[in-house]
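Lab manual, section 2.4: Encoding a predicted structure.

Procedure: take the sequence of the chain (189 residues), apply the prediction step described in section 2.3, and record the output as structure tokens. A sample record is shown.
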Amino acid sequence: MEAHVEHHHHHPHRANRQAARLSVSTLVPVGAIAGLAGGMMMAMWQMIVGAIAKDPTAVAGVHTSFWTPVEGIWSVIFGAGHFHGDFHLVPAVGGMMGHMMNSMMLGILGVYLATTLLGTRPSVARAMAFGMMFGLVLELVVVNLTINGFQSVETLYTSTPEWSWWVGHAMFGATVGLVGASLLRRARR
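Recorded output:
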């Protein structure tokens, strides 16, 4: 009898672990939509903070503005000559497109990690808490270690007050968690 009970406990655990995997056809659209929503929230936050702060950036004569965060993204690849305090079409639109593409890819990664740890239908609160932590890790790894290490002039990090990047990435992650969990909880199995 004990052997049968022990055996019974192992199968549900294995079944639950396998049930916690989303199909690619669910993961990709849910993660992309969640990432897009998170990216839009973060972009609005950073652009508004930049417009209000009007702080000096790493480029002489350029102060933070509504446009510096998205132009800062473009300048990571194309250099400080593409970083301005006012609107320039190519760096503004290109930076926004790059940000949204990255947001969708990171949204897919975030939803994948959240569902791996929390199950395929996580509570919104747990998904948002996980998402905030995910966003803060992204800030540390993507911005502080990678981009700031890559750029000789930190156009991106100084395009808004530095503290706002931490808040923005936490908002990104919380939104990915909120939208991702909401979509997964409504989805059919």
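Check your result against the sample. The longest helix spans residues 24-53.
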